[in-house]
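Record type: monomer structure entry
Structure origin: computed from sequence
Chain ID: A
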Amino acid sequence: MSDSDADENRGGRLTGPRLYLLLRINRWVLTAIVLGVVFVVLVGLSQAGLTPLRVIVASNNGTFWIFSAFIGAIITGTSIVVTINQLVLSQELGAIGDQRDRMQAAMKFRRDLEGELEEDVTPPEPAAFLYELVDGIQEEANEFETEITAEPGHSDDLQRKVDSYVDDITENARSVKKSLEDAQFGTFEVIWNALKFNYSRKIYDARKLRADHGDELSDAADEEIDEMISLLKFFGPAREHFKTLYFQWELINLSRALLYASIPALLMTGIMLMYVEASTFPGTTLGVDNLVWVTSTGFIVGITPFIVFIVYVLRVVTVAKRTLAMGPFILRKSQRDEDLG
């Protein structure tokens, strides 16, 4: 589902097979799927009436030209990616004064939020922290609706818009909180649920509601809107902070995965260069030349580091694209059930 496919509505839902492949599916499973498709294509082409692979290897030394390029590509590519990742992670290094400033800023953010939520201490785990924040937003929305309903003399239009707005927050919050209950940082679940809560739209709706019906709102109702917007404004920095931590976590996983994949890829490439020629592995299996099976397998193993890099980076850049703007800005096309204007 693309940006123009209205993949995010007022409830913050993120759906579609494209987003599932880009974000939800396990990276190793996606790697296996891509490699499996490539393998099937390579073997299938051997049955398509093209020049037999054994003839190409005998006349043009095909395996040499295929696999000799892998050696430099694997070593150079892995070294560059790991180096870039280390440069990104080096931002975590700093003098004790810088680290202390970061600590104080983090503690101040927590104290400010605890003051808004009227809680003594917020949870230290990212999932539980976001749960408490979303739950506080939901409670504030319900209090706002109660305040409006109890006030006499307001229009039916205002009541309808408030009910719709609060229903939207309640539905979205319940869905996010349910998923956050079992979420563990290090998996994608925390960031996924943070993406599902479309706080930017909710800030806009609240401000638009007050702008259109400010003369009908009592001081108490106006204060409830302020408190709700204040809590929503906490969600943006919290999500960005956890997103940054997740990116660093994912880059570490990528570096480790590339190192794991590069060693067998280099080994297989060396075997194909040193020991495989036109006369190797004579005969057929399941109607396919054995040399095709072996060469296709070697090719799959050789490109594994590149595919691993692609599937990891795809998720990182997709999350980055969907969170480019922090605050009351919506960059993607949204499906609006009803514009409050």
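Annotation 1: The chain has two domains: 3-91+262-322, 108-249.
Annotation 2: Residues 183 and 189 are 6 Å apart (CA to CA).
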